[in-house]
Design brief:
This protein is α+β, with helices and mostly antiparallel strands. Helices cover 69% and strands 9% of the residues.
């Protein structure tokens, strides 16, 4: 693992720091109760020393540190946080007879959320080794005392009233049980939460696959409609006309067949263009729109097109969708608007890219004619690239189509 990977900040649930904080407060409260009980109860005849003061200073420091969980801090700060707490616990074991072993387990749990797996293993081994070395030193010091001192301590213990002694032992065992159970419950909840997260991820993955399939079907339907729908409809009309003219022995059969041949060739070119556009990374939208206008004006018609296109290089998906929107708009104008003049403008600004297609045709009523698949397909294309479409039309006054895509 590289240093860069080691210093990665791990993400975790926002509730984890709060749970660990409450758990640490519970541990500190239980251990403080264990320590204060013999000190405050006169029957124990307990004589405090400097080690007890050190323990409460460490308690205060750990309580303050519990408010700060450096999950999103640099790695060196997370290391210092863990080892400062471990050092505090080692000092209590070295200079007092109160064992705070249970808090060490909590700190190791904390390290699992703050350090990498390798560092957690190292921290566990190093802290455990240091802890037991200090523990050995403590027992060596205790056993090196004169036998008379040890006998006096044993006699003092048995001089305590039995109910109090039993209560003290039960309190110690209950504190150990509560602490260990809390850690095990936390571990169990973590495992259950991770399992639920995996099931949730699997469900989301299946939903994404279904959604992707639906989107792909919608895209294919839209592309077929935009690229081939109009052309094949015209081809069908021309072939039907040729069939009727052939029955009448009309001289216009040849013209209808020529038109049909042209439409069939146009369909083939549309398919090739669609496939090429989806594969081509260097798709030039300005050039593609210019060629689209040229193909429209090259057909026998009275259409006049004025263009002013100056678009920047856009992502392939954005360019392709804008091209299809303009193509669909031009096809609708050619088929339905009876327009004589078309204006196509494309420009960019600080807010985004704007394409405007306007004609002087017959227009239509927006409240009655907006349900067509063509307009719906254009809106879907705009939504795919995060844009929007605004259509303004009045019967007898033409139509204006404006596409806006934010940058």
């Amino acid at each position: 693992m590289t240093r860069r990977a080691t210093e990665t900040i791990f993400t975790t649930s926002p509730s984890i720091p709060k749970i660990l904080r409450y758990l640490e407060w519970l541990f500190l409260s239980i251990i403080a109760l264990r320590i204060l009980f013999p000190i405050l109860y006169p029957s124990f005849a307990y004589e405090g020393d400097i080690g007890d003061l050190l323990v409460f200073v460490v308690f205060g420091l750990l309580a303050i540190l519990s408010f700060w969980f450096p999950i999103h801090r640099p790695l060196w700060q997370r290391r210092i946080y863990i080892w400062v707490e471990i050092g505090c616990l080692l000092s209590t074991r070295l200079w007092s007879h109160w064992g705070l072993d249970l808090l060490l387990y909590l700190i190791i749990v904390k390290s699992c959320f703050l350090l990498s797996q390798r560092e957690v293993i190292f921290t566990t081994i190093a802290s455990g080794t240091a802890w037991h070395m200090v523990l050995v030193q403590y027992f060596v010091t205790r056993f090196s005392q004169p036998i008379e001192v040890m006998q006096a301590e044993i006699e003092e213990f048995y001089a305590i009233p039995h109910p109090l002694a039993i209560f003290n032992l039960v309190l110690n065992n209950v504190s150990i049980f509560i602490t260990a159970s809390s850690l095990l419950i936390l571990l169990g909840f973590t495992i259950i939460s991770e399992r639920k997260s995996r099931y949730r991820e699997a469900d989301l993955a299946r939903e994404v696959e279904i959604l992707a399939a639906d989107l792909e079907r919608t895209r294919i339907a839209r592309d077929i409609h935009d690229s081939l729908g109009h052309t094949l409809t015209s081809l069908d009309v021309q072939l039907e006309l040729a069939q009727r003219l052939y029955e009448r022995k009309s001289d216009q059969v040849q013209q209808a067949l020529n038109t049909s041949k042209m439409l069939a060739g146009q369909s083939v070119r549309e398919v090739r263009r669609a496939v090429t556009t989806m594969r081509e990374e260097a798709f030039d939208l300005n050039l593609a729109l210019t060629r689209l206008i040229e193909s429209l004006t090259s057909e026998p018609s009275s259409l006049t097109v004025e263009t002013k296109i100056d678009l920047p290089k856009l992502p392939l998906q954005t360019s392709h969708q804008l091209y299809c929107i303009v193509k669909e708009g031009l096809e609708n104008i050619r088929r339905h608007s009876q327009a004589q003049f078309i204006t196509l403008q494309g420009q960019t600004s600080s807010t985004g890219v704007t394409l405007m297609l306007e004609d002087n045709g017959i227009g239509f009523d927006l409240t009655q004619s907006t349900a067509g698949f063509g307009l719906r397909g254009m809106r879907e294309r705009a939504q795919l690239i995060g844009g929007s479409i605004q259509v303004n039309s009045t019967p007898g006054k033409g139509t204006c189509l404006q596409v806006t895509v934010p940058q």
